[in-house]
Amino acid sequence: MAVRPITGKTVVVTGGSKGIGLSLVKGFLARDNTVITTSRKVSDAAALQQLRQQYGPARLQLADLDASRAASIAQWAAGVKAAGVKHVDVLVNNAGVYGRRPALEDFTEEDFLLAFHTNTLGPFFVVQQLIKQGLLGVPPPAAPSEPGAPPPPAPAPVSLVANISSIVGSNTDPTVSAVSKGGFAYRASKAALNVISTTLARDLAPSGVEVVALHPGYVRTELSGGNGWIDADESAAGLIGVLEGGGPLNGRFLSYTGEEIPW
Ligand SMILES: NC(=O)c1ccc[n+]([C@@H]2O[C@H](COP(=O)([O-])OP(=O)(O)OC[C@H]3O[C@@H](n4cnc5c(N)ncnc54)[C@H](OP(=O)(O)O)[C@@H]3O)[C@@H](O)[C@H]2O)c1
Fold first, then answer.
1. Which is the closest atom of ligand 1 to the Cα of 45?
2. Is residue 254 a contact partner of residue 215, using CB atoms and an 8 Å limit?
3. Three-state SS for 81?
4. Which of 25, 119, 221 best tests ligand 1's pocket when mutated (most atoms within 8 Å of CB)?
5. pLDDT tens digit at each of 263 positions of the chain
6. Which phi and psi angles does 128 have, rounded to 5°?
7. Ligand 1 near 19 CB (within 6 A)
8. Fewer CB near the last or first residue (10 Å), C or N of the chain?
9. DSSP 15
10. SS3 32
11. How many angstroms is it from 198 CA to the middle of ligand 1?
C-alpha cells in the first residue's frame, strides 16, 4: 500500500533513456508527477522524445547530463534551476555503467575509473549540485534562542534521494554477492556508493533529506547484456513501491522487493 504516495511531485531520474531509468520515468509520469530526466544525448533518446510528445514539456523535462563528469553535473543542475524548478521532492540516481567484463589479469585503471566516475562520483555530485542550487531539502531549523532549551525537532523529510546500487556491492550478502565472482570495478564502485549513501543519510538528515540505497533486482537491460530474472517495468514498479511504502528509509539498503540487504 502507498503510505507515502509519490504523486503531484517533482521527480528527477538520471539516465532515463532506457532500461530501469526509462521504466521509472514512465512509472512516475503515470502517477501525475513532473519528471526531470537525463541522457548523455537526449536528442538521440527516442523513447524519451516520444514520452515528451505524449505528456508535454512541462510534465517531462529533458536535459543532457554526463554523470561521469562533475562539470556536466554542475551545468545541468544550474539548468534545472534556471528552468524554474523550485524544489526536488524525489531524486533517483539511476544512471550507471557496468563497463567491460575482463578477466582479472586484463582489468585496467580505465575500467575502474569509468565505473567510479559514473556509479560513485556521479550520484554524489548530483546531490551536491542540487543542494548548491537550493533544490533539495530545507535549511536546518534555527538554533534555540534560550540557553539550555531543548534542540528543536528535526524537520520531516522533504526530499528523498534513492541511489540505485546493486546487491553485488554488498560484502556480506549470503546469496548473490557471496557466490558471484569478478566484476571488480563495478562491484567496488557500488560498494563505495553505499558508503556515500549512508554518510549522506547522516549528514543530510538535519536538512530534511532522506537517502536510501536500492537494489533493482537482476534486470534484463543493456547493462546486464539482456540477462536477468525480471524486466525493467517490474523492477521500476517494485522500486517505486519501496519508496512509497512509508517505512523509514534513511540510511537503509533495500531490494526492489523491500527486503533489507546487508552491507
Ligand atoms: N540491470 C541490472 O540487472 C542491474 C542490477 C543492479 C543494479 N543496476 C543498476 O541500475 C541502474 C540502471 O541500469 P540499467 O540496467 O537500466 O542499465 P541500462 O539499460 O544500460 O541504462 C543505463 C542508463 O544510464 C545512463 N548512463 C550511462 N552512462 C551514463 C553517463 N556517463 N552519464 C549519464 N547517464 C549515463 C544511460 O543513458 P545514456 O546512454 O542515454 O546516456 C541509460 O539511461 C544502474 O545504476 C545499474 O548499475 C542494474
1. 40
2. yes
3. helix
4. 221
5. 688 999 999 999 999 999 999 999 999 999 999 999 999 999 999 999 999 999 999 999 999 999 999 999 999 999 999 999 999 999 999 999 999 999 999 999 999 999 999 999 999 999 999 999 999 998 556 666 677 887 766 556 699 999 999 999 999 999 988 888 999 999 999 999 999 999 999 999 999 999 999 999 999 999 999 999 999 999 999 999 999 997 899 999 999 999 999 99
6. -55, -45
7. yes
8. N
9. S
10. coil
11. 21
CA of 60 to the centre of ligand 1 (A): 19
Environment class of 95 (CB within 10 Å of its CB; exposed 0-12, middle 13-18, buried 19+):
buried
Nearest to 15, CA basis, from 58, 81, 63? 63
Q: Going from the N-terminus, what domains does the chain have, and what CATH number goes with each?
A: 10-139+155-255 (3.40.50.720)
List, in order, residues 6 or more apart from 49 with CB less than 8 Å away.
42, 43, 62
Q: Decide whether any atom of ligand 1 lies within 6 Å of the 235 Cβ.
A: no
How far, in whole angstroms, is CA 246 from its chain's centroid?
Answer: 18
**To 10 degrees, the CA torsion angle through 195, 226, 18, 40?**
70
114 Rama sector, left if φ>0, alpha if ψ -120 to 50, beta otherwise: alpha
The 3-state DSSP class for residue 97 equals coil
Q: Residue 30 contacts by C-beta under 8 Å, 6 or more apart in sequence?
A: none
Distance in angstroms (rounded) separating the CA atoms of residues 143 and 194? 31
Task: Give the Å distance between the CA of 203 and the centre of ligand 1.
Answer: 27
